[in-house]
Every structure is written in structure tokens, then in C-alpha cells.
Records
---
Amino acid sequence: MAERTVIPFGPQHPVLPEPVHLDLVIEDERVIEAIPQIGFIHRGLEKLVQKLDYQSFVTVTERICGICAFGHSLGYSETIEVLMGVEVPPRAQVLRVIWHELSRVHSHLLWLGLLADGFGFENLFMQCWRLRERVLGIFEQTTGGRVILNACNVGGVNRDIANEDLRGIVLILDGMRDEYQVLLKTFLKDRSVANRLRGIGMLSKEKAREYGVAGPFARASGIAEDIRSFGYGGYGFLHAFEPILSDECDGYARCQVRAEEVVQSMDIVKELVEKIPDGALSAKVKGSPAAGSRAVSRLEQPRGECFYYAKGNGTKYLERFRIRTPSSDNLAGMVYTMQGCDLADVPMNILTIDPCVSCTER
Amino acid sequence: MGIQITGMALKNLLSRPATKLYPVEPQVYTSQTRGHVDNNIEACILCSICVRKCPATALAVDKEARTWTINPFSCVQCMTCVRVCPRDSLSMLPEYTPVASNMSTRTLVKPEEKPEEA
Amino acid sequence: MDPQVFIDIQLDELKGHIASYHERGWRLANLCGSSVDDKVELLYSFAQGPELENLRMLVDNGQKIPAVSPLYPNAFVFENEASELYGVVFEGGLVDYGGRFYSPSVPTPMNPASLPAQEYLASARAAADAEDEQEKQGAEEQGAEEQEEGEKEVPRG
């Protein structure tokens, strides 16, 4: 039996966009076990809910993570709306979904770029991020911010997008789509990409169920779990929604699922722009959540299902607000896929799972 | 490797750069850009609703001294104050605040009201 | 909108419930603590497709809770989190980091029984009271101001 060594990996590592520390127990070049540790950027934002009133807290939820910023404000607002029984006007719901799907496009393009950078395909990385820049441009045009949108609020949205601007967005996305097809072809057809990613981090469907993984990680293992398919909120306006699946279960499948979801999100935006109803942007929210009231809600973030739980106590300060992010669900699966993989494949393995640590720690 | 994007790469070679040579080529703000908060102090009634609603506690109002103060280093440009202002005296301007060498606040003094014309 | 199902359970029923959800193939969506007076409330959420059910359980500080991570491995994050932030003691968990998962600078920062949490809550409540006071004042002044404005406007019109 070869000698066992423990190699510390992270929290600062060239392939890691975010700080997660792994103790890799290796035997020769093979990883036997990986022990994750987080807590480097724990900010106690869940505790802050007791100091900021429920309407101001939206600004804090947007700052949980720089990639899923809009998603968290949307999830928080939806939870409080359930808690207080607020009916959101349909136009606001559709606008929220448009922004959310655009965030998914930008998040996936960012991730695809990081992945390309991770396996040494610099040109692909640059092209992905160049396209992503256009989505950020749309955000700046419509909300005034590139990362923190400040568009969502309890009861509705803060700002409108005029119908002609919405059609402009579709034109921008159509232009992007042509260029993106080239990148998509590179990701799915290029031999060097396939050689690097095939067979990395295998997670069978049964194991994926057992480890309760979420998002593209689960869908790449053939689990058809997508909160969007239940038609909550603005997703109810879509005529059909089919989650993108793959049953190859490896890193390549995860790459494929995410790469195809970009096109799917562009289609969703296009369809919703045609269907967007006119009307109010925000419902009036009065009073405070009742004492002992509880609400749960789920939202499909770019990285998977995100779970929100809020508890009121009769004042305008919430008693408890909990965010269970997709990455904390995926940690167990990540540790599992790490067992038995080569040390050189560890960075690829982590990247294809895409843990968002600042979401996980809040 | 990368046969598929050769065309795109060649096109990039012959087209203008996607990046901007920033200080030489100035950044163009959109009309929506959230740069900094400004107060039309003449219209302001010093009601301090903005102070209470500000999630970053960046604002302060002194009714005695008739001043409205903003700490630009705390402000997160969330536009809450602009939305809640009952007199619409607050506005979000697209220009970012210039680089400063020390942390300072900005105070606006509301001029004394002229006596009502008879 | 997700179904809002909350089921109150006791500690001795927990194992049976969890085994039954596991058998039926439900997924553990969430496990989180929150504080109710001097007790800790644990919320277990199970999901399958669009269905979602939440189990609520009140436990005393320091009471030993059977861990769910042997059945649901993804719970090891939540269990370590609850034990570090609330001081809930889990028995038989998959991995016990012993306070080094988040490594909070003070022990159990979110449990109201801990001193820093008490100080935090006291300062938050004081701020809330002061603000309420201010708001009342502000509302009155605002009302007065509106009235004045109205009076001024009448002769102009």
C-alpha cells in the first residue's frame, strides 16, 4: 500500500473563483478522500435580518453573491410575498423572470469561460466573457447596474422596461445567439474539450439521488429536477418548459447541460417578451409579517434549486430568514465525486460542479 | 484544437478591440446608471424619510441646522431614498463620484425660506 | 408558489418520519435552526417534484438529536451549520467538524442563549424602538407639513 499524504487545496488556488478549502488525502496520485472546509467569507447576513426591516433587507440579499445577485433578491421577495399574502402584478412577475433568465445567461457564460480557462483554452474563455459583457450591458441599460440590479422589491419590481426596449433586448440576444452557436459547437464538438472532461467526476443517477444534488449537477446525472418546470410566478406564462438533461453523468455532461441552458434561457426571454402583459409594476405592501407566520419558497438559481424560509414575529423585523443555496447541497456530491479521481483532475472536478461559496456561507 | 472558433478568432484579429482603453477613451454612462445621489436642497423639506429608509445609514438630516448630509462611502446606490422622497427632491445622477484621498461626507444646507409674498 | 405544509412533530417521532420520507424517495431540501424563546426550532424540509413538506420540531438547548446525514449525506453541511450557529448537538452525524466548519469567532452566535447574540438583539431592539419613535414623530410632522402646504395652496388657487 502506498503512503498516504494530505495535500491542502485552496482557499487560494488559480482555478478556484471562490474560497473553499479541501484537504485531499492522496495515495500516489489518486485522491482517497476530500474534506471540505468553508467559513472564510462567512458574513452572518442571516443574522442581519434582525437589524434591518424586511423591505430594506432586499438590498442585503442582493449582495450575498455577485453572480446570483438578482436571483437572491427575487427569492427573498417571493418568500416575503408568500409570508404576507401579497399578489404580485403579472407584468412584474414576467419582468422578474426576464432579468432572472438574463442572469442565468451571464452566470453560465461566466462559468463556461472559467471552465475553458481551467482546461487551458484561453481563446474560448475570452469569447465567452466577451459575449457575457453584452448581457451586463443589457443590465446596465435597463437597471443602471451591471451586477447589483436593484430591480426587485417586495411586492413587485422597482423599474419598468419599456416594450420597445424589450424588443431591443431580444435583438441583442439574437445577435448573441449566432455568435454563441460557434462557442456551443466548440464546447460540444471539439475533441480537446471532450478529452479533458469525459469521465471526470462520475456521479450515477442513483448516487445523485442519494446525495441530493441540485441544479445542472443533478440534471447532468439524468435527474429531471427543475423548479422552473412547475410554472411558479412568471414561468407560468411559458407555453412549455422542458429541463435539459443528460445521462452521461460526467463533467462533460455538466458542461453540455449548462451550455445548452444558455440557449434555453434566451428562448425563454424571447417568448416572455412576446407575451408580456401590461399593467402595474408593484403591489402595495403594508404592515408587517404576522407573529408565528412562516413561508417557504424555492427558486431555480443558475446553480440549482435554492430554498428560502422566512419566519415573522409581528414586527417589521423578521425572526429568521434562511437561504439554503444549491452549492451547500452539492458539497456532499462534490466530496463523493472526488473520491478516486486523479490529483490532476481535482480542479476540473470542482469547476464542473461550480460551487458558489459566498452563497453557501452568506 | 479549436477548429470551430478559428473563424471567430480571425474576425477578432481584424476587428476593433472589445475592450476600452479606459482613461483615454471615456466611459459612456447610460441614462440609468446609478452613479451618485443628489439632492435639490431647495425642494427638500428635511422630512428625514430618506434617513429612516436608507439600508446603509448613509444619510443624516439635521432640522435645526437645516442640513442634509450624505456619506458617499456608505451609500450603496440602491435608490431607496429616491423612491421614497415625497417631494422628489432626491435624484440619482449617472456620474460616479470622483476619486477622493480622504473619507469625507457631503453636506447641503437648505437656505432660509424667504418670507411669504403677500 | 410552493405548498406551505408545516407539520409539528416531537423528538421521538423524528426518526420514523425521516425513514418514511427516505423510503418514499423524497429529497432533503433543507434543515435549519431558529430560536423560539429559550428553545431551538429545527425545520426539516423534504421535497419531491413540486411537493414540499416541512417538519417542525422544538428541542431544548443541549438536547441530543439523531443526525440525518447517514440517510441524507447532503445534510452534513446543515448539521454542522446548526451546531455551530445554534449549538444543536447531533448524534451519529457523517462528519463532525467540531466547530471548525464555519469557525465562528464566538460560540453559537445565533442562539439567543449566547451572550454576543443577546447583546446584538438588545442593540437591534433599542435601534428599532428609537426608529419607531422617530417614525411616529416623523409621521406627525409630515402630517403637519402637509396641512400647512394645503393651507398655503388654497389662497394661491
---
Amino acid sequence: MSQFIIRRLLQMIPTLIGISIIVFIISQLVPGDYITATQNPNMTAERADQLRAIYGLDKPPVQQYFVWVKNMLTGNLGESFQHKMPVTEVISTYVWNSFVIAFVSSLLSWIIAAFVGVFSAQYQYSWFDKMVTLLVFLCMSLPSFFIGLLAIKYLALDLKLFPIGGMTTAGLNAGGWAYIKDVAQHMLLPVTVLTVLSVGSLTRYFRTGMLEVIRQDYIRTARAKGLKEHTVIFKHAFRNALLPAITLLGLELPTLFGGAMILEQVFTWPGIGQIYLASLNMRDYPLMLGFTMFLAVLTLIGNLISDILYGVADPRIRLK
Amino acid sequence: MKKRLSLMLVTLMAFGSILAACGGNEEAAPAAAPTENSTTGETGAEESAATEEVNKANGIIEATDMSMNPATATSRTDTIVVGMTAPQGIFNPLFYTTAYDNYVNQVVFSAMMKVKADGTYENDLAESIDISEDNLTYTFHIRDDAQFSDGTPVTANDYLFTMKVYMDATYDGPSDPLSWNIVGSEEYNKGTSSEIPGIKVIDDKTVEVTVSEYSAITLPELSIYVLPEAYYGKDYKQGDVTSVKALNAEPVGSGPYKLTGYTPGQEVNFEANENYYGGTPKTPKLIYRTTTDNTNMAMLQSGETDLDNVTVSEDNVEELQGLGFVEMHVLPNLGYGYIGMNNESPLFSDKKVRQALTYGLNRAEVVEAIYGPYAEVINIPESTVSWAYTEEDINPYEYDPEQAKALLEEAGWVEGSDGIREKDGKKFKINFSATADNPVIDALIPIMTENYRELGIELVTETLDFNAIMENVKAENYEMFFAAWGLTPDPDSTVYISEGAQNNNNYSNPEVDKLMKEGKKELDLEKRKAIYADVYKLLNEDMPAIFLYQRTNMNAINGRLDGWDISSYKEFTYSLDTVTMEAQ
């Protein structure tokens, strides 16, 4: 097993090099740079040249690439043009805020989707299944900013059940439990909306997975033995229905840290999503490239984790 | 193999958003314009957004019913909460890039001079400023009682230190300090000298600055915000400003408030600076809280914020008026929207064609469609509130398709068999580069297409990312586009001079070049007024770009706060320390 992991980790190196090259080339092909994006009406050509020299944008692309890679190897992702501080610091400032809501909402969606999916598979074409299917498609098709704004209007502004936006109450200098409680309160609305949006597709996965499993012979055998339906579903079928979901679990890793661009904007949540989006608009290359590489590494690790989990869960495909 | 593929997809998707997500936002551009490259000047006649409810003189719509103020606001007696877009945490007047970071800087730091409501300047940190006969030497006398918030006095050495950071080779802020022409700054920048001989510290409170070449904006340029050397200079070495930038999130300055806490993306907390020489601020606490376009009205309504910048539209104004307790300050935005044309393209090289395109476009209808009554059609590239603004001998180019057709005929563009005008066998077909998701474009294109079809001109639009359009503009590979410029209080600019770095329209008129140079060198305001009036007359006639509109901004303020002195030039931040809270 450890040999497998080491081999996979080594394989990640050429993949990462490939990714870095592709990502860098695309960034070079994108028109404009930070200096043109700032749109400063007083910028003279000389000052623009000075700035390009300070940022290293005047060097040929190949040289820029190697400088970037060399710095990356030492853990230095460069300094963000916009934020005037190291990229790693920018990311660590905002990424955890995104992680908190993404983690809680993923947890909720997985739990809800697992149960709802299993039940609607068990009672396929029943009234319950049809209602769930309708709801699921409804949720999946609604644009996130729309539900977000609607929720703010009715739940926060009219009914005053939740705070309107932000992560904490302004001017609250609380620590410890009071702080956690305050953040939790502010989280409720964004987490609910995120969960509603993501639970739909997951439910369909679980439903399909379950439907495939309960048609198999061993389930029929279990039923023929006279086992209770409950035992058949949860003890025999459910575990096998979970297998395909493991792949999804691995891919979930980058989304936990990637931030939700639109919803963060709607709920004024100080997450990394909007920061990343701004870096694209402003052509803040160090931040844009640095965060993309960060996501790429997480994707690779996510893949590795799901492969390992596969082996753990399913003896048939355990690698030797 | 499959996994590789999915990995590639994820990477490509993450990057695809670069191309998809870059809706060039015109609002972003003026926000970044630094306010300190500005100059002395007197106000012109103030003309505000034209609705009946707006008090014409100052653009204020008063609060009507303070009893509707929510308890959340009325119970907050020691704190003002300002809602705004999140700053980026660059709380240093030398390095900030967004207007929101600047709002922080304006209350934490203070400069030699500060702007007044009419766009002129008054002494702030400086008690008096002497200017030599030849306009090359400027002597600043710093106030005796000026202290930083940590209690140390503001000295001439602090000024010198701040200038050194500006002149440093690694300085990457928005200003262009070498263009201030301070004697010896070039050598300091290159590292060949460790001192700047042009800045002489006479004594603790007096500093003398000599420039090799002066202009009308030299004084405001030299009137910089001062950083305390003892705090920022600890680890500074010539050629590396990293240690100064490292303190961006923990600023110390001589302004009315001191920063006590910053939570990125959420809020900035301030407390009154009891050492402030202008008198301890009336409200002991100040909070800048992050809001967005989606939440700012809701936050005002619930009383969670006291002030916010709300997009001016009839709906918004009506809704805020309905709340009763909100006072609105509607102010002309320092900037204007224009339709850029490549003056070197055979289509637009004749000024008759450019005039025809202006006559032939119903600009009033376009502006009405976008901003309702809260924007004005402009005919010169200057703010209506600037001292340089003029309407004398300015052609208003009222919508007149017949005039436009006549001008096109004169220019040799005659109608072909298919109704499209032709000249030398070439059809009059304009390629318009448009950005997606821009309300101006959405309103402009349909009207423009229709108007120009009537003239016998075909308009073809292609949708591009804003940065891509600007790249094409720089490469002179374009015909027409829409964009907006920010304006500084001083009319000097590089947009309409032949060699100007920002000459997006490839416009060239030697007479304008000459006048712009003269205007920059002239210090007498009346003479400058005359020079710029001539410039604007020429620009109005040449129409290097179709000048479209000047829109308005709005500060919506909870009526419990009184005593604001806000204008296009003097932002709300300058009033925060003096406004009083109504006793509830």
C-alpha cells in the first residue's frame, strides 16, 4: 500500500509540471496585464515601464516561468500585485472562511442526499420519489444569486430570522463561544442556500447507485432468506451503493477550498472565491496562478485519496 | 487515463473562468484613480442631478421622518458604521489602489494639505507653505501640535523619510513620484546616491523641497501624507520597501482616527485619536463594514449601517425616500463615459464624420435609458463641477439626424444601392467592441444601431472581455468601443495629447498639445481657465471621442448624523470626525 502511495505521489510531479506549464501559457495568452487593468488615467508610459520592471513583467515569458517555478519550489508564490502581500498570506487569510461554509454544507448535503437518495430509490416511482425528483430539479435549476437574494429578502429582512450578511456582527469584540455563536448565526443562511443547491445532484447519484444495487441477485437472495427490508437496504445494499460516491468524495476536496464566488458576493462572506475572481479581473498573475496551482494540487490529492479509499472499501479492486 | 482527463478538465475549467468571468467593469476604473495628483482651484457653478426633489445647490435629498429610524441605529450612540465594498488591506497612502483602502487612509493619515468641498486646498499638517519666486522651491512649516497617534511629534524628518519611500526603486504604488522632478530623486531611485539633496530638513518642523521643473500640480503633489519614520522606517533600507509594506494592515498616522482592528473582508475598526491636532473626533468609535450592491440598502434599512454608497437610480432613490430616515447626497461622479473611436482609421479620420456620428446619436435617450434623471449628457471631457468646466461656445450636438447626414455627404460618404453609405468603394461599417454585462452597453447598442442605420451606417458588435478590448486599443487594432475615464480635480491629463500614454483615440491636434503644455505650466487660475476653455472648445469641435455622460454617485446617510460637508472632491471621510449625532 505504501509503495502504491509513494508511486502515485511521484507521478504527481510530472503532472504538476504539465499543469504549471499549461496554466502559465494560458495566463500569457490572456490579454492585458495588471498595469493596463488598473486603468489609471495619469499613468505615463515611463511609469508603466518602471512598474513592469518591478513586477518582472518585462522579462521574456520563458524566464518569467522559471522564476515563478523556482520561487514556488521554495514555497514562495510571489507577492500579490493587488494586495501587496505574499500570495500565501492572501490565500490563508480568506481560504478558511470559505472552508467553513463549504465544509458544513458538504457535510449536510452528503447526509441529506444519502438518506433521501436511498429512500427514493427504495420507493421508486412512489409519491415520495416523485416529489423528491421534482424538488431536486427545482433546486438544481435555480440560479444561486437568485435564491440567495430571495432568502435575504424574506428570511433576513422581513422575518429577521438571520443576519443580512457578513460573517460577524459589526463591532462585536467577542472571543470564544460568543464568537463561534455569532459566526454560526451568520453562517446559517449561506450554508442553507449552498446545501439546497448542491444536495440535488448528489441525491440523484445516490438514488441511481442504490437502484443499481437493489436489482442485483444478492439482494434478492437476502430478501429470499427472509431478512427484514430494513436490514437488506442498510446492511447489504447501502454500503455497496456508496462505492461510486467515493470518487465524488475525492473531487470534493478542491471545492472545499475553492470558495463559492457568487454566493460569497451575495452574502458578503469574506471568502477566497471573490478574491480569486478579482485577481482574474485585475490580472493579478501571482495570486491567480498561485491559487490555481493550489487547487490543482488539491485535485491531485483528492484523486489519490479516493483511490486509496476505494481500495479500503472494496476488496475486489485493492491494488497489490 | 480517465483521471488525467478529469484533472485536465478541472484545471481548464478553473482557467476558463478567466476568459468567462472578466466582465470589464467601468465602475472599477475611476475608483482606482488616485486623488492626490490634484491641485488648487476654485469651484465652478455646481450643477447637480436634475430632479425636482434634489436640492440643486448641494444635491441633498433630506430625510423626512426621523421617527422611522430603527432602534438598531438609534441605540448605537458611540459608533458610526459605514458600509462599503471590502478594502484590500493596503492601509498606506503610498500604496493603496482602491478607493476603499483610501477611505481608511483618509481617516488614519493626514497630509500637508487637504481638499475642500469646492476642490481647492487648505493647509492641514502644514501651518503655512512658502513658494519661491521662481516656483521651484516649496517650504513646508509643520504645525507645532501635530502628533502621530502614538504620541510622537510629526517632524520634517518624517516627511523626508516618506519621500524616500516614494522615490525608492521598488516603490510600486499608484503615484509616479519621479515625475514630481524633485532634485536628486532620480539618483536616489537608481541607488547612486543615498540622499535626496532636493529635500532639505531645515529644523524639526521645517522642510524645504526643490524641484527642477514645476507645473500647476507640483504643490499638491508635494503635499504628501506623512508616515512616522520611527514606526515605518525601522527596517527600511534603500532599494527595498518590503518592510514598509509589511505594516500595511497596522497603520500609524496623524489623522483623526486610529485603526484598532482589521478583519479582512469583514470590517475595519477605528477609535478616536486623542492626539489629533484638529481636536478629538466627536464620535469615539468608527467601523467600516463590508457591504455589497446586494446588501447595502438592506443594511441601511435595518439600521446596521449609517452610511453607504448606493447606486443612483430612480428605484433606489424612491425606496430610500420611503424609509424616511435616510438623507441622500447625490453628487456628480468625477469621471465620464465616452465612445472611443480610432481617429487614425479611414472611417473616423475626418472630423466631419466624428461630428456626424455625435449629431446622429440620440445621446439624451441613451443616458436617460441607463441612469434616468441622474446623469447628464456631456460635450467636453470635464466634470460639470470643475473650475475648468465651460459651456461658452460649446456645441451641444443636439440629436439631429439631418445635420448628421449632411455632414456625411460633405465628407464624401454617399448612400449606396443597399442604403449603406460608401466612399471609394468601401462601405461604412463600424465594428464595435462591447463588454458583456455592462448596463451602459445594454442600453447603448440598440439605440446606436437604430440611429446609425438611419444615417446609412452599419454597426456590428462583437463582445469581448474588457481587458481584451483595452489590449486591442493599445495595439491600435480597433474601430469603436465604450469606456469611462476617471477625472482628477486638475484638468491636466494625458488622454487627448498626441504623445499621451492614455491617448486611446489616436487623436492628434498640435494646437491642443500646445495649449495643454501651457496649461500645465501656468499657475494663475484665471489664465488656466482661459487656456482650458480653448482646449475644450477644440475638443468639442474635433470630437476625438463621442462624449456621452457624467453620472452621479450617492451617499445615503442615516439622518441621525448631522454636519456633513460632502462634495465630489471632498469625500465623506473628511466629515467623519466632526459630524454630530442627534440626541435620541
